[in-house]
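Morning!

This is the sequence you dropped in the shared folder:
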Amino acid sequence: MKFWKQKYYSLFVFLVLIVINIFIYFSFAFSSEKIGRAYFLDVGQGDATLFKTPSGLLFLIDTGPDRTAVIKALSQVLPIGIRKIDAVLITHFDSDHIGGLPALLNNFEVGYIFLVSSSADKETAITREVRKIAQDKNIQVISPRAGQLLDFGGATFQILSPGNDLKNIKDNESSVVGRLVENGKSFLLTGDAPQDIEQYLVKMYGSNLKTDVLKVGHHGSKTSSAVDFLANVKPDYSIVSAGLNNRYGHPHQEVLDLLGKIGTKLEETFKQGTIIFDLNTDDLVLEGK
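The structure's back. Tokens below.
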């Protein structure tokens, strides 16, 4: 009987060691593989986009609407044991973009937070909680501004908007607009920036806005996606991040019609779940298709 217990105890220890080795291997392989990917995470009615750069860095833009959706979505694309996000950028303070940030900070090690500066009257309970957690964990909070170029080791993120003056600016107008370039592929993310900001971007950058993948503004709301803007961006793919049967009616039919006219390939998280691009090939590859 004693031999039987010792035999199976030894087998149990052996199996545990195998599991630990597999866990370490896949965690290391994910962090060290020279393959870039873009994940448009399915977080319901909200935004969360994760970029993995060739150097293994993880850059998350927005964190979805609540404390569970982004953690669940990340758990579906990250191997067990990956608990560090190198940088998080919040495009603006609407809850469907920043709602998951407190939970993220409490469950992951975060290197930097990029958070638009705001006057005290625009602060919310979530932003105050975020700043408190960041202070307690000694996480540097940086205010993103047009002209900044962030280097993520094999990927760059150029901030196109907002500028320095945020006085008397509406929340959506202060949305961070940025263009990420990785291995020759480009992604334009606009938060909830409305059409007047899009027109400003057209005036400033014109045809230089041309991008492979557009994260459609404001979840496909008709308040974004101006005709001139779409004509200059000319995306091969357009991503709508929205919840199924959401109360706002996103995406609006007017926007879908405009996207159809420019010949872009439309992908929607509420229909397909998380949308993943493999950035390691010469051509842009949408995984699973």
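Headline: The first helix runs from residue 2 to 32.

More detail when I'm at my desk.
O.
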